[in-house]
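Cross-check.
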Amino acid sequence: MKNQGMGNPLAITAATTVVNSKEGQKAIGQGVNAVKVILLGLGVIAGLRLANSQYKKLRASNFARNNAGNPNLTAAAIIYESFTRIGFPASSLLSMLISSINISTDEAALNDIATKVSNIKAVSHAYYILFDRNLFTDVRKGLDTEELKRFWGIISSSSKNENVTTLYPIGSILYCADKNGITVNQAAKENGKWKGTGIFYDKLKFREEVGKIIAHGVYTYKDKSKENYNTKENYYIVDGYFWPRPFYRTGVVVQHQITNEKK
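Predicted model, tokenized:
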């Protein structure tokens, strides 16, 4: 029967000798010092990250206060809120190990604010200052290829149709080309000629369908007080189906307001 009480007395004696020796004491001291250095390093890193985080928060607060009402700041905020993410805050040490993940994107909100962006570099700068994030990276991760093309296509588009010479054929579908949107009046045919009326046809956002061309012509601006006096522009009579009132309406638009391309 084995003696289980003492174990190996020689091994215990050897270990005690090593601990009590100068070399053992030195090794233990070096180990303790190494742990202290590691802990001190981690504390310094945490302190620097906290200080940097507080600096960025103060910078963002001052930037927001000094630029209240600025459209670039507003656009940056709307773009940021268009993404729903899960993850740790940027100020957290865990954010270095696990990056945030985008779980959903409000594409409609993104495309709507894209129509109002006139300086994407200024918006990107505001986005970085406010949220310490890269706008281009967030948009790329939040949208698929087609959605991304549509978003940047809206931003790069001109605010109106600059093709004022091409006459679109009857039967073409027209879309709103004005980034600010357009309000269209109805058209009526009197004595064989189409005329605009003051009756509401529709209010349309950028790239929304206006209607199908059923007639066209050339309009001459006759207001002498306007810069476009005596200039000519193609006009189009369109019709569209409206719901919940199920009937067709006819409206009138001019060339710079519309395009025949659904981008």
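The radius of gyration is 34 Å. The first helix runs from residue 9 to 20. Passed to J.P. for a second look.
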